[in-house]
Design brief:
Helix content of chain A: over 70%
Strand content of chain B: under 5%
Number of helices of chain B: 5
Largest sheet of chain B: 2 strands, antiparallel
Strand order of the largest sheet of chain B: 1-2
Oligomer: heterodimer
Number of domains of chain B: 1
Helix content of chain B: over 70%
Strand content of chain A: under 5%
Order of helices and strands of chain B: HEEHHHH
Number of strands of chain A: 0
Distance between the termini of chain B: 78 Å
Structural class of chain A: mainly alpha
Radius of gyration of chain B: 26 Å
Low-confidence stretches of chain A: none
Largest interface: A-B, 32 and 39 residues
Mean pLDDT of chain B: 78
Distance between the termini of chain A: 48 Å
Number of helices of chain A: 5
Order of helices and strands of chain A: HHHHH
Shape of chain A: globular
Shape of chain B: flat
Chain lengths: 150, 165
């Protein structure tokens, strides 16, 4: 039941929200550098990366494990999404690659969660939720600390 | 003038999609179910099972080829749209057509698992897109700026610490 909820409600909302965020981000970014208000090339390539990345993670995982609906596949997908998320956060916040890698890895994580929501053991979910929370607190702390330092 | 540009861009968008779809249909025709092996099959006939199996195999083959052809052509459309930056309608028409087809083909084939070549093709597509963003859309400069600003410059006037032991 929760899997259907994630599949039919959360994923479309995440996709729409991600695209809207991307448009707003690129429009603001282009204002700052006196460029045209909206660059279709940046938008197109960014959205393409955001779509291809979760598909790549899913195809690669299914090629190794033959199915996506099991714990090993879920952990592999989450780790791959986390790696791309960290790469996106590390290489800089003002580029098409970083924004699209971040959005694409979030899509991949949501997809992995939605198809495995009912089959994952609660212990693994607890560990993953704890790790995600720790990561978010770490980055939020680091970000706010940097702002206060400036 | 802007309206004309928009219409031209829209026409390029639609025609690019049609072109890629029909190239795929020409190179890779869809197998027909009704006339399997040259004769019309009935659900209760002897040849139904074997014909159904061969049809399913042909359909799998068709899907695999379609995935490859449409992905490659969509990537070519996106690359050419990014490279042709001087004419805006051509650029956005090609980029959006490639994006729409990539969106369609990846979502349509996402449930098809256990296919390693799809991982290879999508990985190559991802690498090309990242290279495109890095080399042609200003990411190289942005990443270099971020990299240089995160490391503080070394002061040359300050004396180096000496080892007094």
């Amino acid at each position: 039941m929760y899997g259907y909820f994630f599949s039919y409600l959360l994923i479309p909302l995440a996709v729409i929200g991600g695209i809207v965020y991307f448009i707003v981000y690129l429009a603001r970014r282009n204002k700052q550098v006196n460029a045209p208000l909206f660059d279709w090339r940046r938008f197109g390539v960014g959205v393409a990366i955001s779509i291809v990345l979760p598909c790549f993670i899913g195809f690669a995982t299914s090629a190794v494990f033959n199915e996506l609906n099991k714990t090993d596949s879920f952990i592999t997908m989450v780790i791959a999404a986390l790696i791309f998320l960290i790469v996106g956060l590390v290489i800089g916040h003002h580029s098409v690659i970083s924004v699209s890698l971040i959005i694409g890895s979030i899509f991949a994580f949501i997809y992995a969660l939605s198809i495995n929501f009912e089959s994952i053991p609660p212990s693994i979910m607890t560990i993953l939720a704890g790790l995600g929370l720790a990561l978010l607190i770490f980055f939020a702390y680091k970000k706010f600390q940097e702002k206060e330092g400036k | 003038m802007k309206f004309k540009k928009f219409v031209i861009g829209l026409a390029i968008f639609i025609l690019t999609i049609l072109f890629i779809v029909f190239v795929n249909r020409t190179i890779n025709p869809r197998p027909e179910y009704k006339y399997c092996g040259g004769y019309e099959i009935s659900p209760f006939g002897q040849s139904y099972n074997s014909c159904s199996t061969s049809y399913n195999n042909a359909l799998e083959d068709f899907k695999e080829k379609s995935f490859f052809i449409i992905t490659v052509l969509s990537m070519l459309a996106i690359i050419s749209g990014v490279l042709v930056k001087s004419v805006a309608p051509v650029s956005w028409g090609l980029v959006m057509a490639g994006l729409a087809l990539i969106l369609y083909i990846f979502i349509a084939n996402f449930e098809e698992i256990d296919k390693p070549y799809r991982a290879i093709i999508s990985g190559l597509a991802l690498a090309i897109l990242i290279w495109l963003a890095y080399a042609k859309l200003g990411d190289k400069e942005a990443i270099q700026e971020t990299g240089s600003s995160s490391i503080p410059p070394v002061s040359t006037s300050a004396p180096l610490p000496s080892n007094k032991s």
